[in-house]
Design goal:
alpha+beta; 4-stranded antiparallel beta sheet; 6 helices; N-terminal domain of MutM-like DNA repair proteins; 257 residues; elongated; Helicase, Ruva Protein, domain 3
């Protein structure tokens, strides 16, 4: 599943390709997860210029001149494709046909990717924009493993399984640590690691795949990798599951319990 750094890059490239173009037609071959009727969606968006594409948590939000927003959640296997005039891609959930033949398709062979007209406002802080006091308060109120907390989109938006491992490794905190047992100094380290890891990952993706609007690129990761046996620091990488999610970590990471 694309995570925050991936979506940051996608949104930037989609803005380059589509911003200020007028949406001529919306087709929804698979409308099972659409929150309104296809006719309502078409009435809201067709004929409107696209003003902005931005990442919101783990979604991409397409903002139009009349104030309506189309949210796209790629889920686990959603893919985005730009095309000209005709969409050749199978398993299309929704396609946006802009002026002069430019199109964008969202596909998903599992039909899980979700289009939403005017997604509800969410006051949960973004993983790139939160206050340390907020994080300290949230961790103090739960005994859940810290990795589980980082993945909770009701606490911080944007972090997924792979980057949670990278963040915790950089902070040298075991993913199995009980959240309310982590000392304040380590929470400050964790807060720094969250922003540093996510921002650096975005730079790494842009460096190697500057034009992407889909996919996941993880070759630069330090610990979350099935191919690597040890980190650059020489530590052996272990793998276990936390809440049915593969978790990669090393003995360098301190366990608080």
């Amino acid at each position: 599943m694309p995570e925050l750094p991936d979506l940051q890059v996608f949104s930037r490239n989609l803005n380059k390709a589509l911003k200020d173009k007028t949406l001529d037609k919306v087709n929804v071959p698979n409308h099972k997860k659409l929150n309104v009727s296809v006719k309502e969606l078409q009435a809201a968006l067709e004929g409107q210029p696209l003003t902005q594409v931005k990442r919101v948590g783990k979604e991409l939000h397409f903002g139009f001149k009349n104030g309506h927003v189309l949210g796209l959640h790629l889920m686990l296997h959603g893919q985005l494709y730009l095309f000209e005039n005709s969409n050749p891609h199978k398993y299309t959930i929704i396609e946006l046909l802009f002026e002069k033949g430019t199109g964008l398709a969202l596909t998903d062979f599992q039909s899980a990717a979700t289009p939403t007209l005017d997604p509800k406002e969410n006051d949960t802080p973004d993983a790139l924009d939160f206050d340390i006091t907020y994080l300290e308060e949230k961790l103090s109120k739960t005994k859940k493993p810290i990795k589980t907390v980082l993945l909770d989109q009701h606490i911080l938006r944007g972090i997924g399984n792979a980057y949670a491992d990278e963040i915790l490794w950089q902070a040298r905190i075991s993913p199995f640590s009980v959240s309310n047992k982590i000392p304040g100094t380590k929470i400050k380290t964790l807060a720094r690691s969250i922003k540093e890891v996510l921002e650096d990952a975005e730079k790494q993706i842009v460096k190697t795949h500057p034009d992407i609007i889909s996919g996941e690129y993880r070759d630069f990761m330090q610990v979350h990798s099935s191919k690597k046996k040890q980190t650059t620091t020489g530590a052996i990488i272990h793998q276990k599951e936390i809440s049915s999610r593969k978790t990669y970590y090393t003995d360098e990471q301190e366990l608080f319990e």
